Amino acid sequence: MGQHPYYVTGRKSIEGSLSFFVISWSILMGLLIYTQSPVTWLLIFQVALASLLLTVLEGLTGYGWDNLPVPLLAGLMIYTLII
């Protein structure tokens, strides 16, 4: 469990949100590399921004309500970044 909690619509932790950011960034970069997209600094910035947006959305929604909008937004971002 995280040692530094914060509350918006439920209990979250800074450590959990940081982990979410790192994992979402890793997954998005992995998917883009898998699709053989050319990796540029702009793409790395866009993936970091997308991961940050997903992390903020996950942090703002609590009590399981993040299980629907976070994957939908992630899918939309993947579709947008690949095309």
Q: Could you characterize the architecture of this molecule?
A:
- By secondary structure, the protein is mostly helical.
- It has one domain.
- The protein contains three helices and two strands.
- The chain has helices at 14-34, 41-60, 69-82; strands at residues 5-7, 11-13.
- Strands 1-2 form a two-stranded antiparallel sheet.
- A hairpin with a 3-residue loop joins strand 1 (5-7) and strand 2 (11-13).
- The longest helix is centred in the N-terminal third of the chain and has 21 residues, at 14-34.
- The protein is elongated.
- The mean pLDDT is 89.
Mean pLDDT rating: 89
Bin the helical content.
55-70%
User: What are the segments in which pLDDT stays under 50 over at least 5 consecutive residues?
Assistant: none
Give the strand order, joined by hyphens, for the main sheet: 1-2
Summarize the structure.
With about 80 residues, this protein is mainly alpha-helical. The chain has helices at about 15-35, 40-60, 70-80; strands at about 5, 10-15.
Keywords:
mainly alpha, two-stranded antiparallel ribbon, 83 residues, 66% helix
SSE map:
Blueprint: E1 5-7, E2 11-13, H1 14-34, H2 41-60, H3 69-82
Antiparallel strand pairs: 1-2
Helix pairs in contact: 1-2, 2-3
